[in-house]
Design a protein that fits this description.
This protein is an all-alpha fold. The chain has ten helices and no strands.
């Protein structure tokens, strides 16, 4: 065997030589840029279509979920990751349900106190509810809550969050929740931005603790169903 043949045999296979593109690893910088872009697009979509919230929110949510996947280079695994790690599935389920019930109870208890001290908060919440409730079947409202909530978790606590939190998890929780709040600014209600940031921190911590999306999705869904239908604030 000649030296040329030997060197040729020892060369490692080149990426893409099999016709299959090897995705680049997701970096924290790319994840942050993607999250920032999605927050701006989501906020603009909310502002543009806020008078048709029930009909437009699922479209905005799905559009932004697809945009996040595209900005990731389409190589980042976009699995829902519903379950936590292995045997922690049940614990994540209980944590999600418990957190959702607890946050719902705290919201119902604290809101009257805040409204009494800050009447503008009550007016802001009333304006939000006026956009939420439209003369459409209740099942459509439930479907919107499910689609929007799942899309928000996939975007803000999904693979992009995981990549951003790989090196600095606390920064990912705080800054990611700030971007989540920014995405709600299109509705023109500061109370919604503040609420999104506060709850975003809770759901991001659940995501870190459980290692999956099941716990935050459950907590998110229970809280939304509670404040919108079971114990509405306005």
């Amino acid at each position: 065997m000649t030296s040329v043949e030997s060197e040729h045999r020892e060369l490692p296979p080149q990426a893409g030589s099999t016709g299959v593109d090897t995705p680049e690893p997701m970096t924290a910088r790319r994840a942050w840029l993607a999250l920032l872009t999605v927050s701006v697009v989501w906020g603009f979509g909310g502002w543009l279509l806020m008078s048709r919230w029930v009909l437009s929110s699922p479209l905005v949510g799905l559009l932004c979920a697809g945009l996040a996947w595209w900005l990731s280079g389409r190589g980042l695994p976009w699995e829902p990751n519903w379950r936590a790690r292995g045997s922690e599935y049940l614990r994540a389920t209980l944590a999600g349900v418990g957190a959702g019930v607890l946050l719902s109870a705290l919201t119902s208890l604290l809101f009257p106190v805040v409204r009494a001290q800050l009447p503008a908060v009550g007016e802001s919440v009333a304006a939000l509810y006026s956009n939420l409730y439209l003369p459409v079947p209740l099942a459509l409202h439930f479907g919107v809550v499910a689609v929007v909530g799942a899309a928000e978790e996939l975007v803000w606590r999904g693979p992009l969050f995981k990549a951003a939190a790989a090196q600095q998890p606390i920064l990912a929780v705080v800054a990611g929740s700030m971007l989540y709040g920014l995405a709600q600014s299109g509705f023109g209600q500061p109370i919604l931005v503040l609420t999104a940031f506060s709850l975003g921190v809770c759901w991001a911590l659940l995501r870190l603790w459980s290692g999956g999306l099941l716990a935050p999705i459950l907590a998110h869904a229970i809280w939304q169903l509670s404040v919108l239908f079971v114990f509405p604030l306005s």
